[in-house]
Amino acid sequence: MAKRVFDVVLASLGIVLLSPLLLLIALAIKLDSHGAVFYRQQRVGLHGAPFHIHKFRTMTNDPHAGGLQITVGADARITRVGAVLRRHKLDELPQLLDVLAGTMSLVGPRPEVPRYVALYPPELRAKVLSVRPGITDAASLAFRDESTLLARAADPEREYVQVVMPQKLALAASYADSASLGLDLKILWRTLRVLLGAQ
Fold it and tell me: Buried (b) or exposed (e) across 131-145, using 16+ Cβ within 10 A?
């Protein structure tokens, strides 16, 4: 209950304080390329319930034209404004709305698409999905350059499934075992430092 109140208060405050920036980003997206301002994608949430995550659109209007559900390196689908948003993680800001809706938390394992959740080992699947997914977590910080990492692989999707995803799951399971407001505050502080370039 305390975590939910914490989420709602901070998400509401964030939306109010960031509203000028959110409007500016929306305008930039509309001026830069054809398509909607927001991008919605189905993810797997708490206890396996599907939901649609919200992001600022950073790709052309056909984001799955390349077939992959992961982004690899300098993906040709990424728009000019989208590249800037991704570099500074600003495309994730609309997820504050998902936090208010109750489908996400500020901190928690990043929600995955059904295609990859289906590959989770059963015991880890149950544990990771036992907590509400979040905007940021330890795995997000550890793999903040994931796209660049995958671009070096001969088979990016195989690299993601066999190398990156198991490490993310281990971090997510560790969070599920020790989740607390104190831990959330530490992760939020680390995330803020990374975004501000302080590492």
Answer: bbbbbbbbbbeebee
